[in-house]
Amino acid sequence: MADSTELRAEVARPTLRPALQVNALGKRVPLPSGELTILKDVGFEIGQGDTVAIVGASGSGKSTLLSLLAGLDSPSDGSVVLDGEALSTLDEDGRARVRGEKVGFVFQSFQLLPSLTALENVMLPLELRGDADVNGPAMQILQKVGLGERLAHYPRQLSGGEQQRVALARAFVTRPSLLFADEPTGNLDTHTGQAIIELLFALNAEAGTTLVLVTHDEHLAGRCGRILRLDSGELVGEGVAA
Ligand SMILES: Nc1ncnc2c1ncn2[C@@H]1O[C@H](COP(=O)(O)OP(=O)(O)OP(=O)(O)O)[C@@H](O)[C@H]1O
Ligand SMILES: [Mg+2]
């Protein structure tokens, strides 16, 4: 019979499943000139509450990788398990559910809805998941990113950096367990960029949000616990930030 003390110890140990498990991930696309390999044999694991920077030259596959990790795109090879959910076993509706429940995403190109105001853009994810109070939290987060005076502006009436902050607010507002952001400080001046970095890491510290950030910003990468480096679609190095 199994030793009961051992059994109890097993039960008591917290089983913290990884936020992300990535195995032999590949992305290939057909082109008239032949097949293009964008990502090849990428594998790593990210723990809950980790902060990870993905770095690499332009065209190395960072945005493609981020889309695969968040279930916005499907891999050609390999698998992604997000908080215990194997994305490849889910259909598009299933992946949308997982994203809605667990994921915030900030696109490199922001992707705000042009017909909605800043406030409406930020309220949208709360409305989609059926929250009763959507106005208050959306206003609060927009104030936090310094846009309390721009609530009724449409995206075309906002500067690039302001649109980026609306996109961040939209990703933050649901307090996701995993936040993916593609160049979150890319278009911001140093002061605003610093404020966004503080906001990201406050979310990590307060809510335990796992952060996966694509960035060229050395200061931002340096704040992360880990750095994953891509070169021509392959993971070439992993380091702990200096
Ligand atoms: N759907 C697609 N069809 C063909 N090629 C693609 C497609 N998506 C991406 N690529 C190519 O794959 C490579 C990686 O693109 P990706 O956008 O992931 O790079 P990145 O590392 O994010 O670059 P950047 O730092 O400039 O944003 C690029 O050379 C790009 O042209
Ligand atoms: Mg990119």
From TrEMBL:
SMART domains: AAA. Coiled coil: none annotated. Residues 20-242 form the ABC transporter domain. Keywords: ATP-binding, Nucleotide-binding, Transport. InterPro entries: AAA+_ATPase (IPR003593), ABC_transporter-like_ATP-bd (IPR003439), ABC_transporter-like_CS (IPR017871), ABC_transpr_LolD-like (IPR015854), MacB-like_ATP-bd (IPR017911), P-loop_NTPase (IPR027417). One of its GO terms (molecular function) is ATP binding. It holds the Pfam family ABC_tran. The keyword Membrane does not apply. This is ATP-binding cassette domain-containing protein. It comes from Pseudoxanthomonas gei. The lineage of its organism: Bacteria, Pseudomonadati, Pseudomonadota, Gammaproteobacteria, Lysobacterales.
